[in-house]
Design brief:
Layout: H1 4-17, E1 27-31, H2 35-38, H3 45-59, E2 74-77, H4 91-96, E3 108-111, H5 113-121, E4 130-133, H6 143-151, H7 153-161, E5 165-168, E6 194-200, E7 205-206, H8 208-212, E8 224-229, E9 236-240, E10 246-257, E11 260-263, H9 267-284
Helix pairs in contact: 1-9
């Protein structure tokens, strides 16, 4: 059992020190929506554009946390094939959401499989604020890009632990079957059971966490989605489909390994702990009480 002196020390740490709290690391935003398609082409383009903006802003640290590379562009990963029917070049959705190619903050550098390994080699240099991965339906991410991302999982995890971010859109192998049997979201191997499912967005709801990012129910209804997540993987659910399944996950990570995520505790949690322990200390020291 923790001694009284231990309680007093814990109170001091909780209120003043935070030395035992892991530092913030990187940012993860994963969605079963394909806003790169719908931001450009039907049915609820403003909602899809807001979802893209929220994902990009999240990995830049604009919804909490600190991305040390926030003055840099993000890497946009997508193939350069001619889009098959039902797909579009997802860069059109980025452009319609207010982003452009370039080397400044909030701009993007597009890369396909032919240049992806070289671009990922630059992760330790701070060249990129984050990685944004196109959907495989209706964007044109293919197994060529996805297999490289999966093979470079360790480098991506190191990048997250250094403070970078990743925003990945729907991976389902639906539509023209562009990603085949390549594991979906395999660059984050702790993401369990990303399940392909074509569904029209009706009755979807934003969670309180999603609302805190500026999303509303109107943003995540009116288009289509292509996968859901069977577990939260220690991240936060952003929105749910009509059956309560997780459509989008996001989190500021404390430490990422191939086995999972240690999320950063909210400071308010430790503040409350500190206040409670400090109060206990004061009560314990009231006149008339035995030592």
């Amino acid at each position: 059992m923790l001694s009284f002196k231990g309680l007093r020390a814990a109170a001091v740490l909780a209120v003043l020190g935070w030395s035992t709290v892991p530092a913030e690391a990187g940012f993860i935003f994963l969605t079963g929506h394909d806003p790169d398609y719908h931001a450009h082409q039907g049915g609820n383009s403003p909602g899809a554009q807001n979802l893209i903006q929220t994902g990009v802003e999240f990995i830049y640290g604009l919804h909490g946390g600190t991305n040390p590379y926030s003055t840099r562009p993000f890497l946009f990963v997508e193939s350069s094939i001619s889009p098959p029917g039902g797909h579009i070049d997802g860069v059109q959705g980025l452009n319609d959401s207010g982003y452009s190619a370039g080397l400044a903050a909030m701009q993007y550098v597009r890369v396909d499989a032919s240049g992806l390994n070289a671009a990922l080699d630059l992760l330790p240099t701070g060249a990129w604020a984050g990685i944004v991965v196109a959907s495989d339906f209706g964007g044109i991410l293919t197994s060529s890009e996805l297999s490289i991302l999966d093979a470079r999982s360790g480098d991506i995890i190191n990048f997250l632990n250094a403070g970078g971010g990743i925003f990945a859109m729907a991976e389902s192998n639906l539509g023209a079957n562009l990603t085949g049997s390549t594991p979906k979201f395999g660059f984050l191997p702790f993401i369990v059971a990303s399940t392909s499912l074509d569904q029209n967005e009706a009755g979807f709801t934003v969670t309180p966490f999603g609302a805190s990012l500026g999303l509303s129910d109107s943003d995540i209804n009116g288009n289509a989605s292509h996968n859901f997540f069977a577990s939260s993987a220690n991240l936060n659910a952003v929105d749910l489909d009509a059956s309560g399944r997780i459509m989008t996950l996001a989190g500021i990570t404390g430490n990422v390994t191939s086995g999972g995520v240690n999320a950063v505790p909210e400071p308010s949690t430790f503040t409350l702990l500190g206040i409670g322990l400090a109060g206990l200390f004061a009560w314990r020291r009231r006149p008339g009480r035995s030592r």
